[in-house]
Amino acid sequence: LVGLSNGVIEMSLAMPGLVETSTNLASVKFEGDDRIVVTTSQRSSVESAKVYASQMIESVFALAGAEVSHSEGYPGWAPNPQSKLLEITVASYEKLFGVKPKVRAIHAGLECGLFLEKYPHLEMVSFGPTLRGVHSPDERLEIATVPKFWDLLADILKKVE
User: Is the pTM of this model over 0.90?
Assistant: First the structure.
């Protein structure tokens, strides 16, 4: 475990450099004169680790006498370095752009986890044009990166059986 100023992260043993599980203090709001609402966020590429982190946070608040409730959140999406679709994606990228792509995994809440929950045997990769300031009023799309994204997507789709 690695401590942060506003949370705790656990690194993945399966994929070096990947934050597998994290928890952070999302917000503290005062409601009236006698109620404080504390919101935390747990994320993980491993669903059971996310549940465990949520239970740890719940137990700390319960010991303090707090009322605890949970929302759905995003399910985990564990990386599959042996994925055939990933192999096709890497080959297409190399062919189109003449360099190897940087293959990475993140533990953020991606829609891929929602799809995987419904279709557990689905292979997935996630890529797209460059975005800046995501989920903020300053969110921006780098328009110059859209053609590269589109060309890659089209080439991958030609190769998928």
Answer: no
Residue 54 to residue 64: CA distance in whole angstroms: 16
What are the tokens at 91?
């080959």
Q: How many CA atoms lie within 13 Å of 11's alpha carbon, on the beta-carbon side?
A: 8
- Residue 77 CB-density burial (10 A; 0-12 exposed, 13-18 middle, 19+ buried): buried
Chunked into runs of 10 residues, the chain (161 residues) has average pLDDT values of 48 69 85 89 82 89 89 78 93 97 76 85 90 86 96 96 72
pLDDT score of 5: 41
To 5 degrees, how large is the angle CA 138–CA 30–CA 42? 60
Closest CA to 80 of 152, 30, 138, 12: 12
What would the pLDDT profile of 37-75 be if each residue is shown by its tens digit? 988 888 887 788 888 888 998 999 999 998 888 887 777
Three-state SS at 160: coil
What pLDDT is recorded for position 111?
79
Using a 10 angstrom Cβ sphere, with 0-12 exposed, 13-18 middle and 19 or more buried, the burial of residue 44 is: buried
